[in-house]
Prior knowledge:
The structure is a homotetramer.
Chain A: H1 3-21, H2 28-34, H3 39-45, H4 49-73, H5 78-95, H6 97-108, H7 112-115, H8 120-138, H9 148-168, H10 176-189
Helix pairs in contact in A: 1-2, 1-4, 1-6, 2-3, 4-5, 4-6, 4-8, 5-6, 5-8, 5-9, 5-10, 6-9, 8-9
The structure holds a DNA duplex.
Amino acid sequence: MKTADKHSKIIRAATKVFAKKGFFNARISDIAKEAKVADGTIYLYFNNKYDMLLSVFEEKIGKLVEQINSQLEKEDDPRRMLEIFIANHLREMKKNKNLAEVIQIELRQTNKIIRDYRNNKFSEYLNIISTIIKLGQAKDVFRKDIMPGIAKRAIFGAMDEIARIWNINMDSEYKIEDTELQVIRIFLVGVLENPSAA
Amino acid sequence: MKTADKHSKIIRAATKVFAKKGFFNARISDIAKEAKVADGTIYLYFNNKYDMLLSVFEEKIGKLVEQINSQLEKEDDPRRMLEIFIANHLREMKKNKNLAEVIQIELRQTNKIIRDYRNNKFSEYLNIISTIIKLGQAKDVFRKDIMPGIAKRAIFGAMDEIARIWNINMDSEYKIEDTELQVIRIFLVGVLENPSAA
Amino acid sequence: MKTADKHSKIIRAATKVFAKKGFFNARISDIAKEAKVADGTIYLYFNNKYDMLLSVFEEKIGKLVEQINSQLEKEDDPRRMLEIFIANHLREMKKNKNLAEVIQIELRQTNKIIRDYRNNKFSEYLNIISTIIKLGQAKDVFRKDIMPGIAKRAIFGAMDEIARIWNINMDSEYKIEDTELQVIRIFLVGVLENPSAA
Amino acid sequence: MKTADKHSKIIRAATKVFAKKGFFNARISDIAKEAKVADGTIYLYFNNKYDMLLSVFEEKIGKLVEQINSQLEKEDDPRRMLEIFIANHLREMKKNKNLAEVIQIELRQTNKIIRDYRNNKFSEYLNIISTIIKLGQAKDVFRKDIMPGIAKRAIFGAMDEIARIWNINMDSEYKIEDTELQVIRIFLVGVLENPSAA
DNA sequence: AATGAATGAGCATTCATTCAT
DNA sequence: TATGAATGAATGCTCATTCAT
């Protein structure tokens, strides 16, 4: 088997095991068994357990970044772009619960000092939101009094919390389409019936 | 020393240590030392380590619930109530980073099967948001097409992600007042310049 | 059981196991089992495996120092003192093979950078030899052209090598009394038939 | 590259690495890297790690034997022969610290049961000393009451301990010539000022 | 002969929990 | 109630050895 194959086999196994058990409860031997590989083999591809988590996280987020970028490429309406981002994120999380779970773990489970160290991909991902917002402001489509740096976190946090619930209640009461629509609506027009009175 | 005192001393110590080190990296002996109590004493008050986390979490959320309820009591404008909720949550998280951290930990760090088991207080807390929204809808102040069950998660998630960042970057670039205002604005009126065109 | 008892029980067990298997081949669990103690208990008394070896070594050498000092106290003939030192060392090594073995291990088995770090007791022990030699020189009993710093090593090394062999061939061909006499003779008068002709 | 070359390349590398790190801390991959050879290649020339140590030891001692034998060939004065042996040994150890270290390791570091198994070269080396002594006794130059089997160990042990110190304190306070002279003097004429009075 | 990726047994150390005092 | 010494199961990681190429 080629090296690249083994690497990705381990990544896949690690994603699954981390998602299922959480980082601290996942044993290296669990991951090795899941990947059908010897324990020691893992250390040919990763420096240590945490390095695996980080790699998994970065790779997954990296794919999200690529995916969303290719979708946004053809679009230049900021409103539509935000809709696409939200819809895509929620769909991916719904489709791939392991991914959602690994994001949760990486963002909250490990030492906060290390946390921000290598998460460039994640920053890149979040910055897509703020870029959209800035673009919308430049085009007079979005309110200028919205701070993109805060909005990006609010939007990501909202979606992430929703995805968290999906991972707990496997059978959510809400349909994905409804949820998408709801989130989009909340962020685009807010909850006020008559915003002009705000 | 009375029993209640020792119990709360341990809770306080545990909050601090869990927040600082995370659940898995916190040692019982750390907590015991912080509480100035013997390791074994902790087991007179709690069944096990996880039970402590849950107790800490429930107590803290319980206090948040009481606090916000007393503030909302005198208010009946749903819009104002939502503002109060958001402002209060963010201020508490900013003031008490340990609390924010413990919420992060409890919500994401431990086995998802156990997660929802006893979190009644937390549900109660989130339901305050949905209650406000329903009230607003009944009063024709909030849009009827907003689903309160989704909105409550979106609002909480947004605030929680913002608080998460505060715990990483100790010196945030944004002032608390600005952040409050931003979150309130995003959720009340959305980001669209001209929502009526939506 | 009192703490001091447990400490010495572990020291005794460690001496035995280190002697039998060597430092690197000794397992903590071997020592724990030998001491009838849980593995973890060892770490209540020692920082780590190497710390145990060092402790064992220092304690044993410390006892040798005390023992020889009390024997030398009543003696002031340097020639006799050297005889006593040699006889005592060889007898102790013969009697307590574990001790001989632990000296071998500590002196040669572990990283040379750490080696000299804490071995003050050992230096003290060796310096008894050089002190005797200096005394003999002051009293015109020993040759002045002998350098005590080299002689102490030569004498210790000679005895240590002999003890090493005892640990290999359990049934030495030589009696302890003969060996003592031989070593004493070699160092006191050398091998020359007619030294005055040297 | 011819097989013999590779074999000796590995021996050289192993000597260096064993000396630097000690047997147990030396990794096969260290030796392979030092020899510019793949890890697996080593197992084409040696059965296992310990076999390498033994080979290194035997080869080095073998060279010492050859060297000293060729020097002693032309000499027939036992006193001079002993001087030559001592001087040669100390000089070689001083010159080649790796060799000294490997002797230390092999003689004390590894399981005593295996120790004596194949050390014929080493016995041969030590027996040169006892042969010299016997010759001296036959020629009435050395005292008859010296037991060659003990003397050979005392002499080797003394020199070995001195060499050990050289490997710890890189900058010894004593010059090699002085040390040689000291050791020779101690063994030839002893430390007594007036041996005839012994 | 040579390679080096893969293996998996092995082990020091940690730490939640217990229990004799 | 309170203590803290003792326990021992649990696990990340290493590295000598193997073997397919």
